[in-house]
Amino acid sequence: MATTSPRCKTCGRTLVKLSSSQYEICPVCETVSLFNTKLKARVLSRFGQIANAVSSQCQDNLERQQSQTSASRVSRFPRIRINQQIQSPPVQRRKRAVLCGVTYNGHKKKLEASVHNVKSMQQLLVNKLGFPNASILVLTEEESDLSRIPTKRNIQMALRWLVQGCQSGDSLMFYYAGHAYQVPDEDGDEIDGYDEALCPVDYKVAGAILDDEINATIVAPLPHGVTLHSVVDTCFSGTVLDLPFLCKINQDGLYMWEEQQITSKGTRGGKALCISACADHQNSADTSAFTGNAIGALTFSFIQAIETESKLTYGRLLTSMRKKVHQAQQVVGRFVPFASSMSQEPQLSSSTRFEIYSEPLML
Length: 363
Fold this sequence. Notes:
By secondary structure, this protein is an alpha+beta fold. The chain has two domains: 16-74, no CATH class; 95-350, Rossmann fold (3-Layer(aba) Sandwich). 24% of the residues lie in helices and 20% in strands. It is built from seven helices and 17 strands. An eight-stranded mixed beta sheet has the order 6-5-7-11-14-17-12-13, sandwiched between helices. Helix 2 (114-127) runs parallel beside helix 6 and helix 6 (297-308) packs across helix 7. The chain starts with 15 loop residues before the first strand and ends in a 13-residue tail after the last strand. 38% of the residues are buried.
């Protein structure tokens, strides 16, 4: 009974049986079939004269017989080294986000805009940036599910969920709107001597969440190919993720990366970036100057930049946000004495240095 000659899975040409071996080779693309399985590897023709001779022999045979080559013409091939590394298929880009807004109901420093901030960010992620709603975990005091109230434990659990099982190609987002403060640094890793701390709704009882813990939870575990963006709309937030490099930029747009740590806190190969409302020594504010309703100045400027700017780079994002925040301060300053002199400058920090005006914003 006639049998069908095996064909190359890559280009469709008839494979040639190699004498005294279980290998079959394609005379065109040099793909090798092993034991009739789907394992493929390219002959290392670039390494050494032996593989070059094999490639030349196959090409001569192809020219003489076009699509079929007699096995007898390649009966004396030497043993061929095979690269058995299989290229993985491209990983589908997955997106996941944790959005946390703390209002502090009943507190004298209640933040009316926090829930609105979260809803605005959620709309941006879903409608503009392609985040599935099912992959966004929202924590506010308006949630009916008790596990979604922004307590210290729930925020900690949400941050663990954010990075759990992340793989190359994934895009992660952590957003926070609420109060924060600084505490004396106890492990000696802060240049200014202070740790930054986020305030969950139960911070008076359970305590704050220090930048050291945030870094250990969502920055340190990031594997190669995973990107984490954090947008943190709170006071004292310049280095709230404890990332090693802070972008210092002047009014002319000139910038430099400034190292921020005494001890390095990197990732496992992934990339982490933090866009924060202000420097570690500054205060941030909610304002109604933009829309008439209270919203975080950083949150509004971030959303507006993404929705209105095309081909946005990190440099253009930072410049646009600072311009909008400054405009809001000028508007408020007309009605509140000295308000325009209150400094709030959005910050960019990163796990690696990069060219901010050429690298596109990828979320």
